[in-house]
């Protein structure tokens, strides 16, 4: 009788596939030949385990985030000097544009300035495993295969990362408020506000934090083993397990369709997941879908299920996250629920939650304000820094979740 379980061999094979993609493709920036090559290799692997496999192209402008940070730093700096030379109105406009850009594009992940960036092609890869009987639900297992630009602020002095980012964010948010109050005083009241001289000194000092944002992302790209090739390798392994069960006439999926999705452009603002969710919204909602997203698995002791996403602006399924935590506890693993903090970025689960899919993300990395020795978004993001125990736990939790949801559907 076929036994559905995760073995040490499964863990080794999952890590080996991750190493293979990293070794053969290297860094995988969206739009690069290396990223497309990775997508094709993933497609070929999924074909061994799925009933149907597709690769979908979508338009993406991956430089939008990096270019916007640079532009914002320059415009903010110019606005500070315009203020000192008494070009108050121009300075206020500049501060406001920076705030709109940072809040819209980087905080909410809107697509405001992307038309000004070069268009490229991204490649989502997905396969489906059909149930033995009528599908009453779908479980979407997702990870992403693109890798990120190196974050220079994580390269050195990691413990100071938050202390360098937070003052810059506060300055960008506060500057236009005080600048436009000053505009009101000048043009409506023909006077100077009492805070004027302090504001001038304040924005000048803020350049210590804002100007370096020009150099925040380097030209170099990370190997992206833990973020996030290991997740794609894990969902492929889960597909393999269910295919083996079917071949052994022990089909564990009677009413649950599995969708195995590896997205592109996650590091470019979740654009791959957004393209997939919008294109397949109708199919994702009929029957109901549950998105078990996996991202940045490094440490067993840091396993967490997200309840919010995109800087805490998107609600994920707290019910689903809690169920996953209970499943983990039943397997002997301590996990926790985590509402992603403002400035913490986002994961692909957010895009599925936007269209009405119940979703959560399993992560396995430190989320405290002060962190050190992280390899996430650095050139040290290699297979050696992924704990096999974290991979084993993630596979077991995901597998148990699928089987539990199938049991519910069958009941």
Structure description:
This protein is α/β, with parallel strands linked by helices. The protein folds into 2 domains: 8-61 and 120-148 and 222-410, Zn peptidases (Aminopeptidase); 66-113 and 157-215, no CATH class. Helices cover 48% and strands 18% of the residues. It has 12 helices and 11 strands. It has helices at residues 8-25, 33-46, 64-84, 88-107, 161-189, 196-210, 225-247, 271-279, 281-285, 318-330, 349-354, 388-410, and strands at residues 52-60, 120-129, 137-144, 149-151, 217-221, 256-263, 289-297, 303-309, 314-315, 336-339, 358-364. The strands form 2 sheets. Strands 1, 2, 3, 6, 7, 8, 9, 10 and 11 form a 9-stranded mixed β-sheet that branches. A two-stranded antiparallel ribbon has the order 4-5. The model has no long low-confidence stretch (mean pLDDT 96).
Which labels suit this protein?
48% helix; 2 domains; alpha/beta; Aminopeptidase
The tally of strands reads: 11
Count, helices: 12
Overall morphology: elongated
Q: Low-confidence runs (pLDDT<50, min 5 residues)?
A: none
Mean pLDDT over all positions: 96
Q: What is the share of helical residues?
A: 40-55%
Structural class: alpha/beta
Question: SSE layout and pairings?
Answer:
Layout: H1 8-25, H2 33-46, E1 52-60, H3 64-84, H4 88-107, E2 120-129, E3 137-144, E4 149-151, H5 161-189, H6 196-210, E5 217-221, H7 225-247, E6 256-263, H8 271-279, H9 281-285, E7 289-297, E8 303-309, E9 314-315, H10 318-330, E10 336-339, H11 349-354, E11 358-364, H12 388-410
